[in-house]
Amino acid sequence: MSLIRTFPGLRPATGRAAEVIAPPYDVLSSEEARVCAQGRPWSFLHVSKPEIDLPPDTDPHDPAVYIKGKENFARMLNEGVLERDTEPYYYLYRLVMGPHSQTGLVAVASVADYNANRIRKHEFTRPDKEDDRVRQIDILNAQTGPVFLVYRHSPEVDAMITAATAGEPDVDVTADDGVRHSLWVIRDHKLNEALTTAFETMACLYIADGHHRSASAARVAAARRATNAAHTGKESYNYFLSVIFPDNQVQILDYNRVVKDLDGLSEEAFLDKVRRAFKIESHDGAVKPAKPGEYGMYLKGKWYRLRIKRGLIPRDDPVKRLDVSLLQDHLIAPILGITDPRRDKRIDFIGGIRGLKELERRVDSGEVAVAFSLFPTSLANLMAVADAGAVMPPKSTWFEPKLADGLVSHVLD
User: Fold this and answer.
1) What class, spelled out in words, does domain 255-375 have in CATH?
2) Is 90 exceeded by the pLDDT of residue 94?
3) How many CB atoms neighbour CB 346 within 10 A?
4) C-beta separation of 132 from 215 below 8 A
5) How far apart are CA 244 and CA 109, in angstroms?
6) Percent of the residues in the chain that have a pLDDT greater than 70, as a whole number
7) DSSP states of 322-377 as a string?
């Protein structure tokens, strides 16, 4: 079994992609998805978040939701909105957001290599979120949400991808958020074989985003293998849908924090405690950290620049030296009393795509007492954590732009 392989993708019919592609299922609430899909009968949200077609009080995990998704998926197939390629191919997927551009290979990746940690992880997953995706994959008999993977850039691979994207794309649409999505079908079988061989020489791939999708695909594969007496390892369920980008093209934005209250401290007492681990400077405008170890803090209508004291930064621990860890370990836990940021309702996380104005809004409205802006986690740090077999703190990375759902799906034969 190879690390990756080609597959016959299920794609929007010619000219239909703009009607179909949708944001990833897990970045929208049910209500946001209803608004987004309004007047768009072929939006893939009718498959990925089918509760939008049921009464508003429907539990998104009700069995009726998955059944509705299956009905909507079948309708898109029967009406010819989605069509499946007759041969297995690789695809190239380019996203352009403002000045940023990244091009990845759409492939299916090996569940066996995922289980063996050749496809490396850096996050814990939640059983309830895995259960949701397992049910969705099983009822659709397809993987519709790609896993975002990263490889250490390779001149050989990058040259092949550059050459393959020289012509006009098969799909070229701009979504409502301004992100341009382009897709090329690689119909050259020799090029596909060369790409398979080149990836096979790589030591590993890294999951950037999509831990629940990959974990769910592995669970489905295990269940189907257990009930298939003729299992060979070549079945489509042994692979999961992925888009694989070179590490030097991926964009990670800041993932900021807001906290509801100061845990009973006055503003003065809070600042005194912060000074034990951080150097503090008042700042006239919003603080967007310029380097690791630097933070912005917005409190009572004022911005401060915080710098962690150098002696507190461990050299050899790839998790403890992350900016998100340093803030958690030296401020959020000991001063604000939030020791479990995964579950504590007093803390919330704001993706950098929403900007620092959102932090100011949350504090000025009284929703929260204090906000922190962070320097983005680097991909090198993410890979170091994954290589160590460790786990990053929750909400450490925010990847932009987001991969669209519905552009290419993987049917499980």
Assistant:
1) alpha beta
2) yes
3) 16
4) no
5) 9
6) 100
7) SHHHHHIIIIITTTT----TTT-TTEEEEEGGGHHHHHHHHHHTTS-SEEEEEPPP
Cis peptide bond upstream of 401, omega within 30: yes
Local structure of 136: helix, strand or coil: helix
User: What six digits make up the tokens of 240?
Assistant: 């999961």
d(CA 133, CA 373): 32
Pairing of strands 294-299, 370-374: antiparallel
pLDDT of residue 394: 87
Phi-psi category of residue 232: left, alpha or beta, with phi > 0 → left and psi -120 to 50 → alpha? alpha
Report how far apart the first and last C-alpha atoms of the chain are (Å, whole number): 17
pLDDT, one tens digit per residue, over 212-258 is 999 999 999 999 999 999 999 999 999 999 999 999 999 999 999 99
Residue partners of 332: CB distance under 8 A and separation at least 6: 257, 259, 338, 341, 347
pTM over 0.90: yes
Of the pLDDT bands very low, low, confident and very high (cuts 50, 70, 90), residue 342 is confident
Which amino acid, 338? I
Cα–Cα dist 60/48, whole Å: 11
Domain range summary for the chain, segments of one domain joined by +: 4-251, 255-375
